[in-house]
Amino acid sequence: MKTIAAIVLLSCCAFGQDKAAISVAEAGCGSQGAVFEVTSDDARHPTPTPESDKALIYVVERAQGVMRFGADGKWLGALKPGTYLFASLDAGEHHLCVTGHVALWKGLSLHSLNAKAGETYYFLVRVLGGGYNELTLSELDPDEGKYLVARSKFSDSHLK
């Protein structure tokens, strides 16, 4: 009897998910079927500054596995451990997404950004340990971000 009660309780939790809200939240991500070829480029280490009418985002990965990074429903590139990428965005509100192909309890992280023209933003992709491993995308202090970019290799990624 206890087994049946447990099954009923767990089934209710599964049906209780708000799939529409999850879909809206994941709108920052690109197509789930997108696959990237990712290499680290030892010969280049570009660190551009933002155009006057755009914002620039740097993303550094300190997780394990290949991670896709996107904004506003489009993948902007992919990273592997110890690499960074950058992307230029229009000023305004953006919805950022990072997701990976590793065994994690939460393999997706989202972040909103109100980007200002001419500004540079730094983000870190990492896995937080503890009872469950969770992928996180967190904004960094600019000094810390510049330091991590300087210590990382450039991620050269292309859709397959």
Walk me through this protein's architecture.
With 160 residues, the chain is an alpha+beta fold. The protein is built from 3 helices and 10 strands. The chain has a single domain (28-159), classed as Domain of unknown function DUF5300 (Immunoglobulin-like), CATH 2.60.40.2890. 19% of the residues lie in helices and 46% in strands.
- What is the count of structural domains? 1
State the total count of DSSP E strands.
10
Report the CATH topology name.
Immunoglobulin-like
Residues in helix, %: 10-25%
CATH superfamily (homologous) name: Domain of unknown function DUF5300
Give the helix tally.
3
CA radius of gyration is: 18 Å
Distance between the termini: 51 Å
- CATH level 1 class label: Mainly Beta
**Average pLDDT figure:** 86
CATH-derived architecture: Sandwich
The major beta sheet can be summarized as: 6 strands, mixed
The H/E string reads: HHEEEEEEEEEHE
